[in-house]
Amino acid sequence: MSGNILIVGATRGLGASLRDLYASNPSVINVFGTTRSDSKPDSHPKVSWITEVDLLKSNVGQKLVSQLPSSLKLSTVIVTAGYFGFESFDTPDWDKQVQMYTTSAIAPVFLVQQLVKAGHLNEGSKVILGSSESGSITLRHEKEGGGNYGHHASKTALNMVGKLLSLDLKPMGIAVGLVHPGFMRTDMTRSVGFDKYWDDGGAVTPEEAAKSLASFIEEFDINKTGEYWAPRGPRDIGTAEPVLGANLPTPLQLPW
Ligand SMILES: NC(=O)c1ccc[n+]([C@@H]2O[C@H](COP(=O)([O-])OP(=O)(O)OC[C@H]3O[C@@H](n4cnc5c(N)ncnc54)[C@H](OP(=O)(O)O)[C@@H]3O)[C@@H](O)[C@H]2O)c1
């Protein structure tokens, strides 16, 4: 991996681990990391913080681009910011759903569109959108049950958004990928009580997930644009298999 990297959602979890991993790579020139706060967190000297990038705000794309050097070319953009608000059939939550759909499936369009229009992405650039196996309709079985409408379906919507962006950007040579990073031991899963599944579900640390995602991104290119991948496999089995398609290694059983 070389060049300049942008990580949207670099403060915690997977985004923070990717930030540190890329910042420690001598081939990487600079890591740009976003925070929704108005202050810059302390971190590695090779990390430039972009502040007040809130995916719930309609001007999120302009806010991001206005803080980047105008001549900056990005080799890779990873959108990993996400929110999981728990719901059950008895407790659907309108506001949480709006927050999840906005974060997962609306904001990425405006971020990517602004980056392209400002000239920060060009031939050979890669855009990686953080999806989830929970957004796969194919992989949802009776065993895992229903609920969590906003979280899971907003990732399904993101998968279509990524496919559409890939079609728009293919003529420019910009590749767009959708990834399930793996089941991770982060604030996200803890906040909805899924830490009780961490051991049985094979949850990995965000540092481990960042390493396998970075290896996947290294190989990812325009030949795979528009595809939806699980670099660790859908059940953390350590292989790269498409989450959607005929090539599934095993019938997936989500831990929730
Ligand atoms: N954890 C898992 O098992 C798992 C499984 C499959 C897919 N994923 C996906 O992987 C990605 C990373 O998950 P994670 O577990 O690392 O999450 P996490 O630990 O909860 O961290 C979430 C990150 O997103 C940022 N964020 C949330 N809402 C935002 C907003 N409105 N605007 C800007 N930034 C916002 C947070 O910033 P603040 O610090 O400001 O809150 C934080 O940096 C997500 O897209 C998630 O859906 C996770």
UniProtKB/TrEMBL annotation:
Q: Which SUPFAM superfamilies match?
A: NAD(P)-binding Rossmann-fold domains
Which InterPro entries does the entry link to?
NAD(P)-bd_dom_sf, SDR_enzymes, SDR_fam
Pfam families xrefs: adh_short (PF00106)
The UniProt GO MF terms for this protein read: oxidoreductase activity, acting on the CH-OH group of donors, NAD or NADP as acceptor
Protein name (Swiss-Prot/TrEMBL): Oxidoreductase
Its taxonomic path starts at:
Eukaryota, Fungi, Dikarya, Ascomycota, Pezizomycotina
